Amino acid sequence: MIDVNLIRKDPKKIQDALKRKLYDVDFSEFLKWDEERKILLVKTETNKAEQNQLSKSVPFVKKQGGNIEEIFAKVKQLSLENVQFEDKLKEIEQKIFDFVSALPNIPDDDLLGGGKENNEPIKYHLEKPNFDFKPKDHVELCESLGLIDFERGAKIAGRGSWVYTDKGALLEWALINFFISEHLKDGYTFILPPHLLNETSGFVAGQFPKFKSDVFWLEDTEPKRFLLPTAETALVNLHRKEILKLEDLPKKYFAYTPCYRKEAGSYRSEERGTIRGYQFNKVEMVQYTTPETSDIAFDEMVKKAETLLQKLGLHYRVSKLAAGDISHSMARTYDIEIWIPSIGIYKEVSSVSNARDYQARRGKIRYKDENGKTKFVNTLNGSGLATSRVFPALLEQLQQPDGSVKIPEVLQPFMGGIKVLEPIIKK
RNA sequence: GGAGAUGUACCCAAGUGGUUGAAGGGGAUGGUCUUGAAAACCGUUAGGGGCGAAUAACCCGCCAGAGUUCGAAUCUCUGCAUCUCCGCCA
Prior knowledge:
By secondary structure, this protein is of the alpha+beta class. The protein has two domains: 26-102; 116-421, 2-Layer Sandwich (BirA Bifunctional Protein, domain 2). It is 40% helix and 21% strand. The chain has helices at 4-9, 11-20, 28-64, 68-102, 138-144, 150-157, 167-185, 199-205, 231-235, 294-312, 358-363, 387-397; strands at residues 120-125, 148-149, 163-164, 189-191, 196-198, 217-218, 225-227, 243-244, 251-260, 279-289, 316-320, 332-340, 345-356, 366-368, 374-376, 378-386, 405-406, 420-421. Helix 5 (138-144) packs across helix 12 (387-397). The structure holds one RNA strand.
């Protein structure tokens, strides 16, 4: 949620900033509502003050033998008057709330405007692997190595689902365990949250109201619940409606959960295999910080996501996203994108974002600063990492001429010492 | 799933319609005293709104929402949460 004071102060500036996010907005109506709200507020408050004063005088007047009936009548009249004001006020405040809560976050000043086409790769790690043989794609490798069963996945769950089998399950789990062990080393707190969340959690994270139809809803629960599309939704709600202590900041969390997502449209050929599905595994990092330190936290989280890929020995790049390509709730996002040789493109494995106080305002997540003033925290999140893209990239990038795949050293302890995955079907 | 009870501030807690403008205690924290500490004593200890340079006064605020009333922490209804018992179940 954007600070309404920023809009009041300089609506044009906010309008221009949101335009860079490809979001057209007209504040003229909002400003009228805002004006009207203020007038009504003053009216109801002075009215109430008078009511309160009169009501409080009743026992005193009674003792003095004064005319209390007169007071009763007067207060009654005031309160009837106030009902109108208050109804109108409520209506306007609801309009304002609906309007403001639908606005996206303000992008950072240094971001280029526009969409995807203005994303800017700012760093590359390692070279694209050069094969002196015909490399296989990950779907082929998953089959020949017996790691993932796509057919049976479709059979038991339908299109867009797959089954990790045997060493594939082991590799998937090893990735997750490796990520977990690294985050623990860095002092992050491990969380296993529920996967079914209530609507407020989605609102605070900023997924709702705009993306309500993009998540899976459960029909049989009352109140309604949805399957989390990312652990961020859970982690960023942990301290909802709390006032945190300054000395407890930054709070650093990570969680492992599957992520459940409705996928609009059909699968393109570049999204074969595990690249896009209804459910994928992800380890997610979230930090709660002061506004002054959130940039530091952001850099730290980008670096952490990178380090994971570096230790796996994989080629990737970091992209600074243009204002129009970062998600609704975020002010700044860097994507870590991994090279997938068979498709010849870089695919996002981590998206590190700073929401600044956008989510904190929605969730009333605050802290007391050194002067005892209550302020909104900043929230940040970043994948660390999503396995469903690391898995195929790892297979493709580390495949050998004989069809085997070398397991990165850091994963071996989590795989019972397996160093190489050998083909089980020789063609 | 069924029945019952409960919900007051960081914690415990008084309060069943009107000086409650929320008592009292604990904890935390600042001060006095002390060489230092303890003890004792004196302060401070929701949040939010609007108006401000800021203060005072003001409005909201006793789980949430609605209602009754001249007036609600207190009465009524609904929701949520917690606890106890019963049933079912990995």
